[in-house]
Design a protein that fits this description.
This protein is of the alpha+beta class. The strands form 4 sheets. Strands 4-5-6-7-8 form a 5-stranded antiparallel beta sheet. It starts with a helix and ends in a 5-residue tail after the last helix.
Length: 551
Amino acid sequence: MARRAADILSEAQQIASLWAGRHQMMAKWYDLIRLRNDLAQPNMESVIAADPRTGFNMARWLLTPKTPVFNVDVSALTEAQAREVGPIERYCDQRLADVQKRTRTHPHGQFLSRLVAQMVATGWYSVISFPLDEGWVMGAWNPAGVFPDYAGDDSGSLLRLARIYTCSGYEANRKIEREGWLKPSRPFGRTNHRVTVLWKVASDSTVSLEVVIGNHLALPETLYDLDRIPVFVGPVAGLPDDGTLMGELWRSEIGQSVVAPIMDVQKNFDKMLTYVQQLVRDTANPRIVEHVRGQRRVVTEATWYSRGAFYSLEPDESIEVLAPPLLPPELRTHLFDLRGQTQRGLFSDITFGNLQQRISALLMSQVTAAAQQVLSPFADGIKALLSDIATTNIHWMRAWRLPIPGATPLSLPDDLDIEFKYDIEIPGDFIQRASIAKILNPDFKLSEATLMDIMFPEVQNAMLEKGRIRSEDAQRSPVFRQVVLLQNLRLAAAEARDSGDAVFAQLLDRAAAQAEAMTFEGAEPGTSPGFNPPPSAMPTEVQELMTGGGP
């Protein structure tokens, strides 16, 4: 019996309800990152520190892969098979580069940048990817709208997945037309419509897909030749409970944002900053006491803050200012304590370059280790995700006989494992480590290729770059310029001779002979030829110096 749209909506909502607690925590983390001011009061100051946003920006910048590389695990391959994996690695690199190019004008940024931002903000990743003849489909979905249903056994495999989001009526009509889905009786209007997508594992070799837009069944249950749901979703940087300790609360804690450790202390810090600022304002604004007759007022708020104010007082009347109490010194100490807890939970101020004095190499190494500890779960998640995407897509391409340029995949095993590799580079860490190594061992040095790979990761081939440098140095040398001149003179002489101008050809031959003599004659045996003009061709002052004369 065919399933109705209501059945699909009910099942998708049942899956989404499992993650209600996670959605609430994601909203709290995101409010902290976007610096929502929940301390604002009418006619009162409030302060929201920028640490969550700056920490988010720092994590996003450090985690975004600068020079991503895919490598095939060759540990279980023969030498002949290991030599054949190069085209597959290059193909994976090119597919990711193509996705980056296609999404560089996306309103949310390029694919990798958006993926990292979502992961850092929500503690989850969600990417749809599968291969086509023309390349790979790779799209980063907002994890807040993706609801997985995992197997209860140790495999943790994905059994069902619901995605719920909204789109405009124009977008819905366009998507139905492009995908060839069932059209509604009347096209969707201008208002937004809720889209419900439901993936399910039908068997070991097929998955099903159903789509409902609004209450319209756009795609009835459709089977695809896939051995897994083509959506890669998972948590990062969370806690290990599976419900044994905290019950259903575990679903909101297995994935956590980068700002999750500082959420409470940051709110406390903002409250203290707000309190201190209001206290400073109250301390700077004195209290006034009037000793006057009757009910009249001498001092008003408008006249008190005006410059050159005058007050008329009767005999025995006076105006006094009440001295405010001093600010307790513990306030600033408490702020420092809270700030220190924030730095331990996120990034140290030194990571941002906020240095008040020179720091030791030991302290810099500790700061680097702390930053890497914060970022490590997210970096591992990015590596695992992109490795899984590449491995699965290459597996599907081989199963579907899709071509991989330059590769002979039939000679490789079916369980080919592809790993995504990149390093988190903390600014200043490499220089500090190199300096320490030089102190411990004065003879320590690194090869030019290694230095270029570390300091300039944008250079894909260090040896090719080194060859280009040598070529440019050769072109700038006087000998090279003289050789080029000699070659041009000989070519010009040949062209003049071919055109019948024997006199000009003879002059060019003589000039070429003179250039050859100036370039190669006079070089000592065992040395490279250089530009050695005869003494008679040198300036008078140079001739006098060579003969021992001159001043």
